[in-house]
Amino acid sequence: MLASGVTLGSSERAELFEYATLAEEQGLESVYAGESWGAAAVPVLTQLLERTESIDVCSGIFNIYTRTPGTVAMTANTLADIGDGRFRVGLGTSGPAVIENFHGVEFDQPLRRTREYVEIIRAFLAGERVDYDGDLFELSGFALDMDEYYECPIYLAAMGETNRQLTGEFADGWMPLLVPNTGIDDALEAVERGTERGNRSIDDVDVAPWVPTCISEDDPDSAREHVRSLIGFYVGAMGEYYANAASSFGFGDEADAIQAGWQEDRQAGAEAAVTDEMVSAFGAAGTPAEAAESFDRFGEAGANSPVAYIPSRWADDDLIRETITHL
Question: What Gene3D superfamilies does the database record attribute to this sequence (predicted)?
């Protein structure tokens, strides 16, 4: 197994468009563009759709706190129209650090909000006039005023067990970040319980974990170090969210050491605490053969469509292009 999609984090827009075109030329199925506290996602997603012809474009992610479900539905349908149906809706909670400290919005009821968000967006994208009486949203009398409706696949970046159950119950795809190949099968148990509650099959859910990925034939050590950097940044710098996730998959001591390293020496300290075992379990790094073996392990554990998360914050242009070409 190799990756089916790619995401590049914090690339400059011009470079991102070039990388997306290269990914399309290499036959990859999807490219994901996210949003944190830098470039807004919608203009980037629009330009990606306009500059590509066959690759699916996905929001990776729209958080569920700073746009209404109606806004996301309008946006998704418009983007799908621009791309002749090539848009996927990626949703997630993000984390308290971003939602509260950057957006100034209370990080409340993430599970309930996720359920209502997906139900409302799916109804709008089906062309329905939506009357909805939820705990958080009450809607009445409106349908999307569009000439054509696109029932875009909805992917959830669900990490916690209950949120994974919700994913299985009503989402089209699951795209977690920092789930190790040693933990995918256990994490999927919650997704499968959700599919049973929703009278669905696990085959109805596209399992698309984001895998930190960097590949080099000539300098595999550098490739591994860039993956180490990405893991260190998420576990060390992003509050408790990803540290707790790593702990839940058996890397508690390592997560504590990474967070302590971040507090002591920021990025360098966090990287130094990321073990080789973590690089192997969470990522696909090194030579093309080593990366392929890593993706195989994700596939054997239950992943259908792993997404290569290339650490563009650290890797240079040549290494990013080499990684995409090997994918």
Answer: Luciferase-like domain
